[in-house]
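Figure 6 in text form: structure in, sequence out.
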């Protein structure tokens, strides 16, 4: 009798323990099916736990690590305006540079000068270079405290490459047998992939040709930069050719039609109060730690329809412990949007969506303090304030801009079609810093 009363509770205890182990196992499997994507460090977890409304910090961006951005100064450009509105860099950093060594180079910029910069994922300037001509420039580099300043001197050479291939599995594989671009297949495939509309229509056996610009510095065995200038894609379901507009960096068809779809300002049909704004420099009131808010929060009742702000493809729809039910749309051309804390999805992963199409309902899932929609816009892998950025609305180039684009793109297409030798073409293209 005594023995029985002892075994019963311990057996029940064992069953409860087994049950909770199974529940924990199930919770983890169901919660985060792709642990590689979400591997927050301990400090990140602590930061997120400390800050109940800093809910987006743990969901990493989707795009590859930030790359150098380039810009050629145009007549009428004002550095402070470009800095904030076009390049999305903190204006406080510009003031910091204007206060230090090398300020005279920033004060004396002029049209035609070539500027390049590297920013971190959260939009902080890491390096800035201003080229006086192709061989000489100046450079600022972020250090532990402030920026270092250096003069640069080098020989820069532009070479053009034309590649052609047949799609076989993923794009990078289709490029892997080309010795001219050894080691850069991934970057070139990513560039083409980014600029192809309706990638879902790509099929094995499709053919493509690419015009690629490589910049070489003297004494350097690998190219300093590689970028796609034009492409022609002939597929079973998709035939398209496009060229880069050298001023805005975007791709347009030969007729000047942008490959970027037009965007609505918000992904909601009605106006809702913004409960938290985009803020890269937000500090946690207690810890003093920088905890940027990479999106805009709309105070929406649970169940409010979320609509696609632009045409795109559903890249992901999943659950995450902090983001709750979340959805990612790839709009192509480096534009992605994300929606957090949803109560339900109205679309499936891989589905193509049109602007204005309902995609989900808002909710309060994940680490959220009340029903709302957290909405993010990323351009080339960096979170951007979707309420302030100039959104793509012009679907085609016009006037002088169109004339300039046509003049240049016609040359690029001649190169792409092998109707002009590439070394000749390289000399005719507008050169950086000249
Ligand atoms: Zn938010």
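Output sequence:
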């Amino acid at each position: 009798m005594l023995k029985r009363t002892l075994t019963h509770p311990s057996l029940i205890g064992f069953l409860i323990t087994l049950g909770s182990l199974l529940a924990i196992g199930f919770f983890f499997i169901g919660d985060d099916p792709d642990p590689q994507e979400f591997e927050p460090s301990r400090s990140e977890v602590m930061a997120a736990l400390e800050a109940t409304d800093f809910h987006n910090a743990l969901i990493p961006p989707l795009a590859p690590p930030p790359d150098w951005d380039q810009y050629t100064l145009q007549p009428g450009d004002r550095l402070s305006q470009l800095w904030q509105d076009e390049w999305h860099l903190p204006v406080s950093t510009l003031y910091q540079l204007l206060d230090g060594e090398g300020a005279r180079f920033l004060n004396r910029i002029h049209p035609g000068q070539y500027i390049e910069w590297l920013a971190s994922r959260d939009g902080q300037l890491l390096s800035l270079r201003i080229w006086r001509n192709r061989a000489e420039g100046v450079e600022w580099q972020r250090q532990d405290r402030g920026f270092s300043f250096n003069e640069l001197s080098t020989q820069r050479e532009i070479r053009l490459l034309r590649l052609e291939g047949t799609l076989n599995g993923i794009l990078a594989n289709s490029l892997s047998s080309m010795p001219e671009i050894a080691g850069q297949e991934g970057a070139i495939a990513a560039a083409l992939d980014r600029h192809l509309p309706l990638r879902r229509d790509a099929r094995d056996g499709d053919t493509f040709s690419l015009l690629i610009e490589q910049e070489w510095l003297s004494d350097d065995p690998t190219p300093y930069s590689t970028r796609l200038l034009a492409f022609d894609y002939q597929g079973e379901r998709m035939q398209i050719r496009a060229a880069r507009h050298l001023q805005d960096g975007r791709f347009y068809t030969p007729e000047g039609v942008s490959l970027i779809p037009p965007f609505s300002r918000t992904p909601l049909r009605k106006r809702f109060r913004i409960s938290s704004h985009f803020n890269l420099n937000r500090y946690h009131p207690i810890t003093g730690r920088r905890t940027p808010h990479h999106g805009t929060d709309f105070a929406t009742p649970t169940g409010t329809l979320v609509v696609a702000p632009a045409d795109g493809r559903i890249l992901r729809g999943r659950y995450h412990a902090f983001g709750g039910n979340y959805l990612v749309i790839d709009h192509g051309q480096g534009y992605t949007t994300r929606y957090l804390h949803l109560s339900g999805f109205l679309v499936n992963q891989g589905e193509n969506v049109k602007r204005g199409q309902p995609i989900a309902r808002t909710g309060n899932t994940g680490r959220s303090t009340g029903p709302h929609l957290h909405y993010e816009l990323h351009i080339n892998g960096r979170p951007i304030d979707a309420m302030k950025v100039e959104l793509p609305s012009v679907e085609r180039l016009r006037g002088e801009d169109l004339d300039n684009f046509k003049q240049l793109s016609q040359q690029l297409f001649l190169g792409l079609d092998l109707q002009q030798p590439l070394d000749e073409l390289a000399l005719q293209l507008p050169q950086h810093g000249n």
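Caption detail: The pocket of zinc ion is lined by residues 55-56, 276, 293, 295, 297, 374 (CB under 6 Å).
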